[in-house]
# Entry
Amino acid sequence: MTTLVNLYHGNINPCESERLNNNPEYQKLLALTEKAQEKLQASLSEEQRQLLDNYIINSDELSIVINEAIFKEGFSLAIRIMIEIQQ
# Structure
């Protein structure tokens, strides 16, 4: 199968990068973030926990929007480079 066919059939998901999952720095920062979040949530009132949960949800959604825009820009740049090479 070609890359395009694999992408169409869901065999390739750019959001699930093995490079990222196997990155020790990423894993370390993820663990530190999760630990800090757990400690913070344990120290908050119910209302404060709800505010924190809303903040985390909104922050995650913002990250998705940003990463999607960066992915699109990177893809567009790659296409422009390929076009220039062909000329």
User: Anything to note?
Assistant: Residues 46-86 form the longest helix (41 residues). The chain has four helices and no strands.
